[in-house]
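Supplementary Data S3. Sequence and structure tokens for construct A.
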Amino acid sequence: MTLAETKTKQLIRVGHSPDPDDAFMFHALANEHLDTGSYNFTHELVDIETLNQRAFSGELELTAISIHAYAFLHDKYALCSCGASMGEGYGPMVVTREACSVDDLKTKKIAVPGKLTSAFLGLRLCLGQDFDYVLVPFDEIIPAVQAGEYNGESVDAGLIIHEGQLTYGESDLKLVLDLGVWWQELTGGLPLPLGANAIRRDLGEQTINEVQQLLHASIKYGLDHRQEALDYALQYGRDLDTAKADKFVGMYVNDLTLDFGEKGREAVALFLKMGHEQGVLPELIVPEFVDL
């Protein structure tokens, strides 16, 4: 693409996590396997809690956000129907150095990856009360639990997201709680809504629809060219071998990623409703999805 061509195209700044599943999802767009027409996509790879915080200023046209964060951002962003991260019987986990019960977690200091993450809201709902926590970057939580401290603060347990769900055992940590299992049992089989792609409302209906179609096409390209997209995603695997990276991508890029579907939409609405009922979310948010 020439400089002149770039200047005539509408800029769509995309924010997503530096993880295999997001890399897989955006492979086609990031590596110019799609004709993006009148749009020029640029990509910023940032951890999810940073993206949640940045979304308040609306600087990115298309961004990954936590479903929890969406409750505070619904005036600026609408949820894309594609690009979801849902846990079907699996999800964020709480791990400790020594085995304990879920009830024991209510008295422990837990390292968490961010107060606006869906993992944080899910744990708050599961425990049914506030809990003591320390904010730790998601990729430093396992070492913090191993060490028992982070920046001078004690750490008894860790709320792990992303690839830590597959690798915590290699650090001799014990699984206390899988929020995906808890949610599935609580709701009679619904997937746990974790992340979504959100698009800025002020872009207008036409741009919103066209950008979402390109996002959908990128996800479908990855699923249709799995090995090619996986090879690209492996560079973001943070010590995952090929088998684990393949498993992780399969967990979070699937049919629900192509479209939330009825059960995905139901899960998001229920998650936000429960957050409001338990006093975590200040208002009842009914999610709005961009139609595919």
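Construct B, processed identically:
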Amino acid sequence: MERNIKLLIRYDGTRYFGWEHQPDTPMTIQGKLEQVLARMLSLSEGEIPLITGAGRTDAGVHARAMVANVHADTEMTEEEILAYCNRYLPDDIGIDRVVFASPRFHARYNAVGKLYCYSLWCGAKKPVFERKYLTVLDGVPDVPAMREAAACLIGTHDFKSFCANPRMKKSTVRTVDRIEIKEQGEIIRLYFHGNGFLQNMVRILTGTLLEVGFGRMEPAQVMRILEAGDRKMAGPTAPPEGLCLMKVEY
């Protein structure tokens, strides 16, 4: 019986070349899932199941709740699929939930919102145990200034200045309805919620807000960068290890 299997996935992206399958390397999240599902479904050599993810996280980026779906012919129950996947996936990839979705469910096209968190460390000590999930700063940024700059980004805008792909042919208009910056001791977390994000967009937004935080930009410059549609005007792309996909909404 053909099922549309919906997967809720978490992973530590440290040693992977991102989510998306790449023919020249098995070290992608999608690639590892394909290997396990192909074995579970007893597919012929060379056959791979078509897995659709809600997005494409970059190399080194993590996820607490990536959503994917795959159409497969199987008599296994949701519980059996969950147990099989978690048995054979590597320790840094886990399936939290398996659900049989409607035939028309599509993990990417049906998504209406995403929440990302970027985590920064600004303490004097080294974050030894959290080092793979934080970006370490050389100083303490001006968080109120960062919040002022972030307010300029709220709404529906053309975020071309914050897209890493200069040849982007599709629309670069997105809606960001919330940016929260929270201080938790020596950790600063930036939460970005919107209807979708461009390639490297959250990391470029973070890098730009940090330029404001360290006084290399004024908060008002962010609006001019947004209006310019020029990636060169924005700040640097923040490193991948601090970024985590927290939630996909449907």
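The CA atoms of residues 36 and 70 lie 13 Å apart. The first strand starts at residue 2 and ends at 11.
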